[in-house]
Amino acid sequence: MFEATKEMKIRIRKIAPNEVEILAEIAVKTFIASHGSSASETDIQSYIAEKYTVQQFENELNNSASFYYFICVDGQIAGFSKVVMNVSPNEKSESHFAKLERLYLLEEFYDLKLGHELFQFNCELAKQHSQKGIWLFVWTENHRAIRFYNKAGFEIIGSHNFKISENHSNPNHQLLLQL
């Protein structure tokens, strides 16, 4: 467990291409912590093997519409986010919306309000890129995340089945926050 102090130094920084292995490692840990109980271990491991590879993250880091950031506390990486600019939340909307694809913290950094810091950073980033809002999917059983996004002012605008494997999908809420 990380020991919080009054003098904690919080820094949010862009993830460098040479940090892709660190990103992949943290992404796997945080995905398992938040979604590990949502499907069988076989399905979860299969999903990770396909979607959370170093090569996959390299490709995403090279996408000019994707923005990856680490949040660090006293020099330690505590979590990360990924936001993609100009992604329409549905067929009826224009594309000037940011999709928050990932906002994850390592468990030892929960309850330090780092998720709020990283979220606010992504909101400002979206505004700088002239986005009208931020949208995302959240697993309906991730009550901690749902509370977080409700407090931030998101509204449910739809639903989505998040495919973990050929045999398993998780129901998700689609949420939107107007900026």
Features:
single chain, 179 residues, alpha+beta, seven-stranded mixed β-sheet, 5 helices, 34% helix, 33% strand
Concise account of the structure shown:
This protein has 179 residues and is an alpha+beta fold. The protein has helices at residues 20-35, 41-51, 54-61, 114-128, 143-152, and strands at residues 10-14, 66-73, 76-84, 98-105, 133-139, 155-165, 168-178. A 7-stranded mixed β-sheet has the order 1-2-3-4-5-7-6, sandwiched between helices.
Structural notes for this entry:
There is one protein chain. This protein is of the alpha+beta class. It is built from five helices and seven strands. The protein has a seven-stranded mixed beta sheet with strand order 1-2-3-4-5-7-6, with helices on both faces. The longest helix is centred in the first third of the chain and has 16 residues, at 20-35. The N and C termini lie far apart (35 Å). 24% of the residues are buried.
